[in-house]
Amino acid sequence: MIVTILRKIESWVVVISIAANVSGAFVLLALVAIMNVDVVSRNLFNAPFRGVVEVVIFSLALIVFLQLPDVVRKGRLTRSDGFLGLLRVMNPHVGNVLARVLDGIACMFMCLIVWTVWPEFTESFESCHFFTPPEFGVPPTGNLWVDFRTALERCDYFGTPGILQAPWWPVRLVIAFGCAWAAILFFFKTVLGDTQEPRHITAQTSREA
């Protein structure tokens, strides 16, 4: 009964991780388009896209952590698992137990990252004063769009003033989300086992390929 409930919850977690992966792919496509625009404008019109470095930094963080949960789901997270793959071939039971232990450790590490990043996100978000009157600066006018733009200007930001500035809190929110969702997936792998059954490359399988 409990296993069935966990499987249903896991299926919804998987759907959200796939949706996040697709979102990361769209961010990647947008980054490619921006890079192409920069190349064309730089070479043909001698007018490079201002802030392209900041856009790349911002986009890479979004891409990595939006696609992290689905990478964990598919068992494609970069790691050294030659010994684990060999153990699964020689003794599947012991290999699967060890894999669950490693997934449990990975879950704890992801939780530690979330625990570290979340206060930074809340601090960055609160610096904008979206819902509270600021201590300094222009008070709320009642116009939602004007107040929103004014609040964005108050946010803790990265970038170069006068070229491109972006608030930190969306990046930190995505980092917290990606690591939290990865932790949930590692938890299900620990409790329910790895349903993906990743195929490890060995000398025998490489000859078969």
Please tell me about this protein's structure.
The protein is mostly helical and 209 residues long. The chain has one domain. Helices cover 72% and strands 4% of the residues. It contains seven helices and two strands. A two-stranded antiparallel sheet has the order 1-2. A hairpin with a 3-residue loop joins strand 1 and strand 2. The longest helix is centred in the first third of the chain and has 43 residues. The chain is globular, with a radius of gyration of 22 Å. The two termini are 40 Å apart. The C terminus is likely disordered.
Quick overview of this protein structure:
72% of the residues lie in helices and 4% in strands.
Number of domains: 1
Mean pLDDT: 82
- Per DSSP, the total helix count is 7
* C-alpha termini separation: 40 Å
Q: What is the beta-strand fraction? A: under 5%
Which residues sit in consecutive blocks of at least 5 with pLDDT less than 50? 198-209
- Tell me the strand order in the biggest sheet: 1-2
SSE topology string: HHHHHEEHH
Structural class: mainly alpha
Major β-sheet profile: 2 strands, antiparallel
Helix content: over 70%
Rounded to an integer in angstroms, the radius of gyration calculated over CA atoms is 22 Å
